TrEMBL record:
InterPro entries: D-isomer_DH_NAD-bd, NAD(P)-bd_dom_sf. Pfam families: 2-Hacid_dh_C. The keyword NAD applies. The lineage of its organism: Bacteria, Bacillati, Actinomycetota, Actinomycetes, Mycobacteriales. Residues 109-282 form the D-isomer specific 2-hydroxyacid dehydrogenase NAD-binding domain. This is D-2-hydroxyacid dehydrogenase.
Protein backbone atom coordinates (compact mmCIF):
# COMPACT_ATOMS: atom_id res chain seq x y z
CA UNK A 1 0.00 0.00 0.00
CA UNK A 2 1.41 3.40 -1.05
CA UNK A 3 0.94 5.69 1.95
CA UNK A 4 -0.16 9.32 1.54
CA UNK A 5 0.45 9.73 -2.20
CA UNK A 6 0.05 13.13 -3.83
CA UNK A 7 -2.41 13.30 -6.74
CA UNK A 8 -2.44 16.32 -9.05
CA UNK A 9 -5.71 16.83 -10.91
CA UNK A 10 -5.59 19.03 -14.01
CA UNK A 11 -8.97 20.53 -14.86
CA UNK A 12 -10.32 23.28 -17.08
CA UNK A 13 -13.37 25.25 -15.97
CA UNK A 14 -15.11 22.31 -14.29
CA UNK A 15 -13.52 20.74 -11.21
CA UNK A 16 -14.17 16.97 -10.91
CA UNK A 17 -17.16 16.06 -8.76
CA UNK A 18 -15.86 15.79 -5.19
CA UNK A 19 -18.37 13.09 -4.25
CA UNK A 20 -17.02 10.77 -6.94
CA UNK A 21 -13.45 11.74 -6.01
CA UNK A 22 -14.04 10.96 -2.32
CA UNK A 23 -12.40 7.48 -2.38
CA UNK A 24 -9.19 9.10 -3.63
CA UNK A 25 -9.42 12.03 -1.22
CA UNK A 26 -9.65 9.55 1.66
CA UNK A 27 -6.30 8.00 0.73
CA UNK A 28 -4.30 10.80 -0.91
CA UNK A 29 -3.45 14.47 -0.87
CA UNK A 30 -5.26 15.93 -3.90
CA UNK A 31 -4.04 19.10 -5.60
CA UNK A 32 -6.62 20.53 -7.98
CA UNK A 33 -5.12 22.86 -10.57
CA UNK A 34 -5.73 24.53 -13.90
CA UNK A 35 -3.09 24.77 -16.60
CA UNK A 36 -1.47 27.86 -15.08
CA UNK A 37 -0.74 26.07 -11.81
CA UNK A 38 0.17 22.67 -13.21
CA UNK A 39 3.94 22.89 -12.66
CA UNK A 40 3.47 23.77 -8.99
CA UNK A 41 0.93 20.96 -8.52
CA UNK A 42 3.28 18.42 -10.13
CA UNK A 43 6.17 19.25 -7.79
CA UNK A 44 6.39 16.17 -5.55
CA UNK A 45 3.27 14.54 -7.04
CA UNK A 46 3.03 10.78 -7.55
CA UNK A 47 0.01 10.72 -9.88
CA UNK A 48 -1.47 13.08 -12.45
CA UNK A 49 -5.15 12.80 -13.35
CA UNK A 50 -5.64 14.70 -16.62
CA UNK A 51 -9.32 15.57 -16.30
CA UNK A 52 -8.87 18.36 -18.87
CA UNK A 53 -8.48 15.87 -21.69
CA UNK A 54 -7.92 18.53 -24.38
CA UNK A 55 -5.03 20.19 -22.55
CA UNK A 56 -1.71 21.07 -24.13
CA UNK A 57 -0.23 22.27 -20.82
CA UNK A 58 1.72 19.18 -19.77
CA UNK A 59 4.80 19.59 -22.01
CA UNK A 60 5.42 23.07 -20.54
CA UNK A 61 5.14 21.74 -16.97
CA UNK A 62 6.98 18.46 -17.52
CA UNK A 63 10.15 19.71 -15.82
CA UNK A 64 8.25 19.59 -12.51
CA UNK A 65 7.02 15.99 -12.93
CA UNK A 66 10.17 14.40 -11.51
CA UNK A 67 8.33 12.13 -9.06
CA UNK A 68 5.26 11.28 -11.18
CA UNK A 69 4.82 7.53 -11.56
CA UNK A 70 1.49 7.35 -13.39
CA UNK A 71 -0.68 9.61 -15.56
CA UNK A 72 -4.34 8.86 -16.19
CA UNK A 73 -6.22 10.63 -19.00
CA UNK A 74 -9.97 11.22 -18.87
CA UNK A 75 -10.38 10.31 -22.54
CA UNK A 76 -9.89 7.42 -24.91
CA UNK A 77 -7.54 9.39 -27.17
CA UNK A 78 -4.22 10.44 -25.65
CA UNK A 79 -2.67 12.20 -28.67
CA UNK A 80 -2.40 15.62 -26.92
CA UNK A 81 -0.06 14.03 -24.35
CA UNK A 82 2.26 12.07 -26.58
CA UNK A 83 5.18 14.49 -26.58
CA UNK A 84 8.69 13.00 -26.81
CA UNK A 85 9.76 13.46 -23.18
CA UNK A 86 6.72 11.61 -21.84
CA UNK A 87 6.90 8.94 -24.54
CA UNK A 88 10.53 8.20 -23.64
CA UNK A 89 10.03 8.28 -19.88
CA UNK A 90 9.24 5.46 -17.45
CA UNK A 91 5.89 7.05 -16.52
CA UNK A 92 2.89 4.78 -17.06
CA UNK A 93 -0.02 6.29 -19.00
CA UNK A 94 -3.57 4.95 -18.84
CA UNK A 95 -6.72 6.13 -20.56
CA UNK A 96 -10.49 5.88 -20.08
CA UNK A 97 -11.16 3.32 -22.76
CA UNK A 98 -14.62 1.79 -22.40
CA UNK A 99 -16.53 4.82 -21.16
CA UNK A 100 -17.62 6.12 -24.55
CA UNK A 101 -17.74 2.98 -26.70
CA UNK A 102 -21.48 2.25 -26.70
CA UNK A 103 -22.53 5.91 -26.84
CA UNK A 104 -20.35 6.55 -29.88
CA UNK A 105 -21.69 3.41 -31.55
CA UNK A 106 -25.23 4.73 -31.03
CA UNK A 107 -24.20 8.07 -32.55
CA UNK A 108 -22.80 6.32 -35.63
CA UNK A 109 -25.99 4.32 -36.08
CA UNK A 110 -28.03 7.51 -35.72
CA UNK A 111 -26.00 9.25 -38.43
CA UNK A 112 -26.26 6.29 -40.79
CA UNK A 113 -30.03 6.19 -40.28
CA UNK A 114 -30.21 9.95 -40.76
CA UNK A 115 -28.47 9.62 -44.13
CA UNK A 116 -30.59 6.64 -45.20
CA UNK A 117 -33.89 8.23 -44.16
CA UNK A 118 -32.77 11.75 -45.14
CA UNK A 119 -33.84 13.27 -41.83
CA UNK A 120 -32.17 16.65 -42.54
CA UNK A 121 -34.28 17.11 -45.69
CA UNK A 122 -37.43 16.09 -43.80
CA UNK A 123 -36.72 18.81 -41.24
CA UNK A 124 -36.14 21.36 -44.00
CA UNK A 125 -39.43 20.43 -45.67
CA UNK A 126 -41.25 20.66 -42.35
CA UNK A 127 -39.86 24.15 -41.74
CA UNK A 128 -41.16 25.13 -45.20
CA UNK A 129 -44.57 23.52 -44.47
CA UNK A 130 -44.07 21.27 -47.50
CA UNK A 131 -45.74 17.85 -47.72
CA UNK A 132 -43.59 15.94 -50.21
CA UNK A 133 -43.72 12.16 -50.48
CA UNK A 134 -40.27 10.61 -50.84
CA UNK A 135 -38.69 7.19 -50.65
CA UNK A 136 -35.81 6.28 -48.36
CA UNK A 137 -32.96 3.80 -48.28
CA UNK A 138 -32.68 0.59 -46.28
CA UNK A 139 -29.55 0.07 -44.20
CA UNK A 140 -29.91 -3.71 -43.81
CA UNK A 141 -27.49 -5.39 -46.18
CA UNK A 142 -25.46 -2.25 -46.82
CA UNK A 143 -21.69 -2.48 -46.35
CA UNK A 144 -19.79 -0.55 -43.68
CA UNK A 145 -16.03 -0.23 -43.37
CA UNK A 146 -14.93 0.70 -39.85
CA UNK A 147 -11.43 2.19 -39.88
CA UNK A 148 -9.99 1.54 -36.42
CA UNK A 149 -10.46 -1.81 -34.72
CA UNK A 150 -10.05 -0.79 -31.08
CA UNK A 151 -12.84 -0.90 -28.46
CA UNK A 152 -14.83 1.96 -30.03
CA UNK A 153 -14.59 0.46 -33.50
CA UNK A 154 -15.67 -2.91 -32.11
CA UNK A 155 -18.70 -1.43 -30.35
CA UNK A 156 -19.68 0.24 -33.63
CA UNK A 157 -19.26 -3.03 -35.52
CA UNK A 158 -21.41 -5.00 -33.07
CA UNK A 159 -24.27 -2.49 -33.15
CA UNK A 160 -24.28 -2.11 -36.94
CA UNK A 161 -24.14 -5.88 -37.38
CA UNK A 162 -27.14 -6.19 -35.06
CA UNK A 163 -29.26 -4.03 -37.39
CA UNK A 164 -28.35 -6.11 -40.42
CA UNK A 165 -25.43 -4.20 -41.90
CA UNK A 166 -22.42 -5.98 -43.40
CA UNK A 167 -19.41 -4.78 -41.41
CA UNK A 168 -15.72 -5.04 -42.22
CA UNK A 169 -12.71 -3.56 -40.46
CA UNK A 170 -9.48 -1.81 -41.40
CA UNK A 171 -6.58 -1.91 -38.94
CA UNK A 172 -2.84 -2.27 -38.56
CA UNK A 173 -2.79 -5.97 -39.41
CA UNK A 174 -4.91 -8.31 -41.50
CA UNK A 175 -7.00 -11.04 -39.94
CA UNK A 176 -9.95 -13.25 -40.77
CA UNK A 177 -12.74 -14.67 -38.62
CA UNK A 178 -12.57 -11.67 -36.29
CA UNK A 179 -15.48 -11.91 -33.78
CA UNK A 180 -16.70 -8.37 -34.49
CA UNK A 181 -15.50 -7.52 -38.01
CA UNK A 182 -15.22 -10.86 -39.74
CA UNK A 183 -12.49 -9.64 -42.09
CA UNK A 184 -9.96 -6.96 -41.15
CA UNK A 185 -7.79 -5.55 -43.94
CA UNK A 186 -4.44 -3.89 -43.22
CA UNK A 187 -4.05 -0.13 -43.60
CA UNK A 188 -1.90 -0.52 -46.71
CA UNK A 189 -4.93 -2.11 -48.44
CA UNK A 190 -7.32 0.64 -47.34
CA UNK A 191 -8.06 2.05 -50.83
CA UNK A 192 -9.30 -1.33 -52.06
CA UNK A 193 -11.42 -1.78 -48.91
CA UNK A 194 -12.95 1.67 -49.35
CA UNK A 195 -14.12 0.82 -52.85
CA UNK A 196 -16.60 -1.73 -51.52
CA UNK A 197 -18.15 0.33 -48.72
CA UNK A 198 -21.46 2.20 -48.69
CA UNK A 199 -20.53 3.84 -45.39
CA UNK A 200 -17.03 4.55 -44.08
CA UNK A 201 -16.75 5.08 -40.32
CA UNK A 202 -13.48 6.40 -38.91
CA UNK A 203 -12.75 5.49 -35.29
CA UNK A 204 -8.96 5.24 -35.43
CA UNK A 205 -6.61 6.90 -32.92
CA UNK A 206 -4.52 9.85 -34.06
CA UNK A 207 -0.88 8.85 -34.45
CA UNK A 208 1.90 9.93 -36.77
CA UNK A 209 0.92 7.02 -39.00
CA UNK A 210 -2.77 7.97 -39.19
CA UNK A 211 -2.48 11.77 -39.38
CA UNK A 212 -4.02 12.98 -42.68
CA UNK A 213 -4.84 9.37 -43.57
CA UNK A 214 -7.95 10.45 -45.46
CA UNK A 215 -6.81 12.62 -48.33
CA UNK A 216 -7.91 13.15 -51.92
CA UNK A 217 -6.62 9.72 -52.89
CA UNK A 218 -8.63 7.95 -50.20
CA UNK A 219 -11.81 9.87 -50.98
CA UNK A 220 -11.26 9.10 -54.65
CA UNK A 221 -11.16 5.39 -53.81
CA UNK A 222 -14.65 5.53 -52.26
CA UNK A 223 -17.93 4.92 -54.06
CA UNK A 224 -19.59 8.10 -55.39
CA UNK A 225 -22.64 7.31 -53.26
CA UNK A 226 -20.69 6.54 -50.08
CA UNK A 227 -21.10 8.46 -46.83
CA UNK A 228 -18.23 9.28 -44.47
CA UNK A 229 -18.59 9.39 -40.67
CA UNK A 230 -15.69 10.59 -38.49
CA UNK A 231 -15.78 9.97 -34.74
CA UNK A 232 -12.00 9.65 -34.38
CA UNK A 233 -9.97 12.84 -34.66
CA UNK A 234 -10.20 15.75 -37.08
CA UNK A 235 -6.52 15.49 -37.97
CA UNK A 236 -7.12 12.06 -39.48
CA UNK A 237 -8.58 13.95 -42.45
CA UNK A 238 -7.25 16.55 -44.86
CA UNK A 239 -10.28 18.78 -44.53
CA UNK A 240 -9.71 20.66 -47.78
CA UNK A 241 -9.69 17.35 -49.66
CA UNK A 242 -12.92 16.34 -47.92
CA UNK A 243 -14.59 19.60 -48.93
CA UNK A 244 -13.51 19.06 -52.53
CA UNK A 245 -14.80 15.47 -52.50
CA UNK A 246 -18.18 16.61 -51.20
CA UNK A 247 -18.46 19.50 -53.67
CA UNK A 248 -17.58 17.37 -56.69
CA UNK A 249 -19.77 14.40 -55.74
CA UNK A 250 -16.77 12.13 -55.24
CA UNK A 251 -18.59 11.07 -52.06
CA UNK A 252 -22.23 11.68 -51.19
CA UNK A 253 -22.08 13.03 -47.65
CA UNK A 254 -20.28 13.33 -44.33
CA UNK A 255 -21.16 13.34 -40.65
CA UNK A 256 -18.36 14.94 -38.65
CA UNK A 257 -18.16 14.88 -34.88
CA UNK A 258 -14.54 16.02 -35.07
CA UNK A 259 -12.73 18.50 -37.31
CA UNK A 260 -9.12 19.58 -37.54
CA UNK A 261 -9.85 22.96 -35.95
CA UNK A 262 -12.34 22.95 -33.08
CA UNK A 263 -14.61 24.85 -32.91
CA UNK A 264 -15.08 24.88 -36.67
CA UNK A 265 -14.28 28.47 -37.72
CA UNK A 266 -17.01 30.88 -38.80
CA UNK A 267 -17.31 30.96 -42.55
CA UNK A 268 -15.87 27.49 -43.08
CA UNK A 269 -17.50 25.85 -46.14
CA UNK A 270 -18.49 22.75 -44.16
CA UNK A 271 -21.05 24.76 -42.19
CA UNK A 272 -23.33 25.33 -45.18
CA UNK A 273 -22.92 22.17 -47.21
CA UNK A 274 -26.31 20.43 -47.50
CA UNK A 275 -24.76 16.94 -47.45
CA UNK A 276 -22.81 17.51 -44.21
CA UNK A 277 -23.84 17.08 -40.57
CA UNK A 278 -21.60 18.64 -37.93
CA UNK A 279 -21.68 17.96 -34.19
CA UNK A 280 -19.37 19.58 -31.60
CA UNK A 281 -17.18 16.61 -30.59
CA UNK A 282 -19.94 15.18 -28.38
CA UNK A 283 -20.69 11.78 -29.94
CA UNK A 284 -19.79 10.00 -26.70
CA UNK A 285 -21.03 12.56 -24.20
CA UNK A 286 -24.04 10.85 -22.64
CA UNK A 287 -25.70 12.13 -19.47
CA UNK A 288 -23.30 11.21 -16.64
CA UNK A 289 -20.15 10.87 -18.74
CA UNK A 290 -18.09 13.18 -16.53
CA UNK A 291 -18.83 11.10 -13.44
CA UNK A 292 -18.11 7.90 -15.37
CA UNK A 293 -14.65 9.23 -16.25
CA UNK A 294 -13.93 9.93 -12.59
CA UNK A 295 -15.08 6.44 -11.63
CA UNK A 296 -12.59 4.89 -14.07
CA UNK A 297 -9.77 6.90 -12.49
CA UNK A 298 -10.88 5.99 -8.96
CA UNK A 299 -10.90 2.27 -9.77
CA UNK A 300 -7.44 2.49 -11.31
CA UNK A 301 -6.13 4.57 -8.40
CA UNK A 302 -7.22 1.85 -5.98
CA UNK A 303 -5.34 -0.70 -8.09
CA UNK A 304 -2.25 1.53 -8.29
CA UNK A 305 -2.15 2.13 -4.54
CA UNK A 306 -2.01 -1.58 -3.70
CA UNK A 307 0.37 -2.46 -6.53
CA UNK A 308 -2.11 -4.26 -8.78
CA UNK A 309 -1.73 -4.07 -12.58
CA UNK A 310 -3.45 -1.01 -14.00
CA UNK A 311 -6.27 -1.17 -16.53
CA UNK A 312 -6.04 0.53 -19.95
CA UNK A 313 -2.26 0.92 -20.13
CA UNK A 314 -1.33 2.93 -23.22
CA UNK A 315 1.53 1.83 -25.43
CA UNK A 316 3.19 5.24 -25.58
CA UNK A 317 4.91 4.53 -28.87
CA UNK A 318 1.74 3.29 -30.57
CA UNK A 319 -0.35 6.02 -28.94
CA UNK A 320 -3.22 3.83 -27.72
CA UNK A 321 -4.09 0.73 -25.69
CA UNK A 322 -3.19 -2.28 -27.84
CA UNK A 323 -5.99 -4.71 -28.59
CA UNK A 324 -5.51 -8.30 -27.54
Amino acid sequence: MRANPVVAVLHAEAVPDTVHMAPVAARADIRYTDAAGLAAALDGADVLFVYDFLTDALPRAWHAARTVDWIHVAAAGVDPLMFPELRDSDVTVTNSSGVFDEAIAEYVLAQILSFAKDIPESLRLQRDHTWLHRESERIAGRTVLVVGTGPIGRAIARLLTAVGMRVRGSGRRARVSDPDFGTVTPTEDLPAALAGADFVVVAAPLTEQTRNLFDAGMFGAMKPGARFVNVGRGDLVRTGDLVDALRTGTIAGAALDVVDTEPLPDGHPLWDMPNVVITPHNSGDFVGWREALIDVFVENFQRWQVGMPLDNIVDKHLGYVPSS
